[in-house]
Amino acid sequence: LTDEDGHGRDLVVGWMRELDLDVGIDVVGNIIGTWNCASGAPVMTGSHIDTVRTGGRFDGNYGVLAGLEVIQTLKEAGITPTRPLAVGIFTNEEGARFAPDMLGSLVYVGGMSVEEALDVIAIDGARFADELEKIGYNGPNPCPGPSPHAFVELHIEQGPVLESIGFRLGSVTGVQGISWQELTIVGQSNHAGTTPMSMRRDPAFVAARITVFLRDLAMRYGPPQVCTVGKVDLVPNLVNVVASKVTMTVDVRNTDEAVLRRAELEFAEFLSVVAQEEDVTISTRTLARFEPVTFDERVVDIVSDVCQSFEVPAHRLPSGAGHDAQMFARVCPTAMIFVPSIKGISHNPAELTDDADLSLGADVLLHTMLRLASTDFTIESNT
Ligand code: HGY
Ligand code: MN
Ligand code: MN
Fold it and tell me: Less Cβ around it within 10 Å: N or C end of the chain?
């Protein structure tokens, strides 16, 4: 919702209009471009064009641009799908400034109220609704939005799996559970030189113990358990002052909900012990909490079949990153297509994927969308 986000939105909306799509903008700024070439609920693809501040060019952008490329290619080839095709750009997928992540698609599917979303306060104190209005994307369309016939998202893997096993395509089976918390640790600021160690109530030390505990927990649990401390703000953040307060974030994820809950419980117990030992207070605030999602087997199979039709087998894997598709799985048959990330790097300007893989992924997206358009999901698959 920065000015740069607004400019990016204007640019992509311009491309949607060049494709003669019907462009709708909703109350939390989601943008849906629809090719109304037929009747019925659309097959929808799409992703996000917001990035983490230090993000790469492909995370999100790739899925949106490939969706537009699919429509342009079909139009130029004179092929009219049997259902409308839609490309969505979902607001605030990253959640790094306004939590939670996937906020736009979550509101779109009715998982968060519009009122609650509009009142979210950013890490820099800005209010969501005000920032959305500033860039002119507080649209008229209501949320929840209409459910698509099916949803498929094309995305870079953002991890090392496909590259490490030599696969060019991934047929994504689901998304792991996500638990984000903000911790506020309050101790006592003091003189760095005169205060004996035995008298300190040092939140910076507690933050370090928390970070070490989370690393140990992830190592003890083993893969796919991951824990990340991404943001630590000390007050007053001065060389010769023992900090009075630390605000930090904790990102804990696992594909298994029961294990994720166990990790959260163990962490909560540790916080109460360390608060007592170090004589500080620790308060927690949930920033995001999404259970693991399993995609519709029928759509996952269609993705795999389409990949096979290109004689490029797809590896089945869960997504370590959150995606807008995990929200659409709540309302319609949904799955994802992955292409490899070189060296598994993402949320980093060095993020990169080979051109050949990018275009192969877009080809798979095109044929998957056509297959979804001609699939009647009301008939229980007899397999
Ligand atoms: O945090 C995530 O997994 C996503 O990039 N929002
Ligand atoms: Mn993404
Ligand atoms: Mn991302």
Answer: C
Q: What DSSP line would sit under 254-293, residue for residue?
A: ES-HHHHHHHHHHHHHHHHHHHHHHT-EEEEEEEEEE--E
Whether 100 is in the pocket of ligand 1, judged by its Cβ within 6 Å, is: no
Over residues 279-323, the pLDDT tens digits come to: 999 999 999 999 999 999 999 999 999 999 999 999 999 999 999
Residue whose CA lies nearest to ligand 1 atom number 4: 322
Closest CA to 323 of 81, 39, 90: 90
Report whether residue 321 contacts ligand 1, using a CB cutoff of 6 Å: yes
CA distance 174 to 166: 21
Q: What does the H/E/C string look like for 139-171?
A: CCECCCCCCCCEEEEEEECCCCHHHHHCCCEEE
* Shortest-distance atom of ligand 1 to CA 94: 6
Q: Ligand 2 centre from 240 Cα, in Å?
A: 40
Which atom of ligand 1 is nearest the CA belonging to 253? 3
CA distances from 150 to 5, 32, 248, 300, 326 (A): 27, 14, 38, 12, 13
Identify the CA nearest to 111 among candidates 126, 98, 100: 100
Give the model's confidence band at 380: pLDDT under 50 very low, under 70 low, under 90 confident, else very high.
low
Q: Residue with the nearest Cα to atom 5 of ligand 1?
A: 94
CA angle 170, 339, 229 (to 5 degrees): 95
CA separation, residue 195 to residues 188, 240, 371, 383 (Å): 11, 11, 70, 71
Ligand nearest to the CA of 102: 1
CA 60 to ligand 2 center in whole angstroms: 4
Residue 99 is encoded by which pair of tokens?
């939590």
Structure tokens at 187: 């101790």
Is the whole-model pTM more than 0.90? yes
Q: What is the pLDDT of residues 3-25, one digit of tens each?
A: 999 999 999 999 999 999 999 99
- Residue 95 Cα, ligand 1 centroid: separation in angstroms? 7
How far does residue 86's CA lie from ligand 3's centre (Å)?
Answer: 22
> Could you report how far apart the first and last alpha carbons of the chain are, in Å?
45
Q: Please give the Cα distance from 360 to 162 (Å, whole number).
A: 14
